[in-house]
Amino acid sequence: MNDTSSQPETSGLILIVDDAPENRLLIGAQLRSDGYQILEAEDGREGIEMARQHDPDIIILDVMMPDMNGFEVCRTIRADKQISAIPIIMVTALSNVESRIEGKKAGADEFLSRPHNREELLVRVRTLIQVKRARVRLEEERHRLQLLYNISRAISTQLELEPMMADIITQTQAAVDATKGNIMLLDKNGRVTHKFLIRAGAPLEISDHVAQTVMTRGLGGWIRQNKQSEIINDITQDDRWITLPDHETERGSAIGVPLLGPDQHLVGILILNHPETGYFSQEHKALLEAIGGTVATAIKNAHLFNEVSEEQRKLEAILGQSTDAIIAMDESWHILHFNRMAELFFQLEENKVIGKQLHDLPALRPIIEIWENGEGPLQGHEIALDENRTLYATISPIQGVGYAAVLQDITELKRVEEMRLAAERAEKLKAKDTIARYLGPNLAEHVLNNVPGLMAQRQRRHAVVMFADLRDSTRFTRQFEADEVITRYNEFFTRMTEVVYKFEGTIFELTGG
């Protein structure tokens, strides 16, 4: 990029191609007097070579030349991409229309008839230089917008850090014709975490190592400390350029730009090199700073993406190793996640059910029925599968996602529970038969059903069953006085109670008749 906006209108380099020395002398003198620099070529071939070598602002071309006339020279220049944009004024003594038409077809911008008028020459030259500079500015702006577009596309189409940075440094290095470019990414403490280096004609290099001197005394360290862009016109004359052992012959200029986020936090540094001293301009600096802000935001987003991806990877690993089936669905019951145990329980493959609705999968329809018929979220229900398997399912809503179903295989638990209940029933019947021998069926049933925890304790106990049958009670009461009868009864029942308590028994009932 050349800074054409600040150049005066009467400055510029003009190439005169004419086989006649007197013509070159006259035109050259008129242009020099107006402040232009002049190059001269004696024939068409020399003129083409000088145009390639010096890239003049305008070529003033004679038509009538031996060996290679002006029309041929003009066509050759227009066919050469390197110099095709240079404006051409053809000077000719031919006044017929056919000659001018041929000149236009060859690519001439203007015609000047001999003998020419000095003021006319200067006006045409000045106008064409203005047009060329405007064209250059437009081309530079187009180039800048194209670069920004390419960078934006690289950012918008990729979220992974390394591929995105590779695209950005490649696009930037090519856009400013730098022979070397690198982006260094920094962590929150200013330490380099990634370095992306590209050289002209060489593949991209990615590493996490940067020489310590570069980030302390070098340009990278200066930018990290000052958070400002900087141009070094001659790297051999600036102490901030650290020449590494494998680059001792490095020459030219360099430019460095901080990659600052919206909060002015430094996330990286961009440095470009060119073999020419003084190559980088303020326009380069402005362009790279515009890129820097966009890239800094992209880097921050890439870091967030990596963090989210890592958390997602961990979550998927946890879900994958879960012994429960876990199914995530959106609000329309489309399947979002189907873990390994869900595949095993329902004999379905994850890649074949993701995105499908539960209604379309008969094996999974009970999940929707549970939700529709349930009493609320987290209300558990059993689902019977083939092969006598039973799942215990809970379904809960997830805000912003949809639903999550967790299904636990309780087949073995149910089998063990059924065995426990069967054993308890058998034990209860056995106990009832034993107790009924002494207490009678009704009393035995009452004991088993109403004594809390009797069967649940499952303890072995010594049972002492004591029966007292007080016969002829009426005759006994007639033989003694009332006080004596009561005293003897109290003594008898006291002894019975002591025996019961001694053997940790229970007094169920005292009856008399």
Task: Characterize the structure shown.
- It is a single chain.
- With 513 residues, the protein is an alpha+beta fold.
- It has five domains: 13-141, Response regulator (Rossmann fold); 158-306, GAF domain (Beta-Lactamase, 2-Layer Sandwich); 323-406, PAS domain (Beta-Lactamase), CATH 3.30.450; 410-457, no CATH class; 461-513, no CATH class.
- The protein contains 15 helices and 16 strands.
- The protein has helices at 21-32, 44-54, 70-79, 97-106, 118-157, 161-175, 219-226, 282-321, 340-346, 350-353, 365-373, 411-439, 441-450, 473-479, 482-502, and strands spanning 13-17, 37-41, 58-62, 88-92, 110-113, 180-186, 192-199, 205-207, 230-232, 253-260, 266-274, 325-330, 335-338, 381-385, 389-398, 402-409.
- The strands form three sheets. The chain has a six-stranded antiparallel sheet, sandwiched between helices.
- Helix 3 links the parallel strand 3 and strand 4 (88-92).
- Helix 5 (118-157) runs parallel beside helix 8 (282-321), helix 6 runs antiparallel to helix 8 (282-321) and helix 12 (411-439) packs across helix 13 (441-450).
- The protein is rod-shaped, with a radius of gyration of 50 Å.
- It starts with 12 loop residues before the first strand and ends in an 11-residue tail after the last helix.
- Residues 1-8 have low confidence and may be disordered.
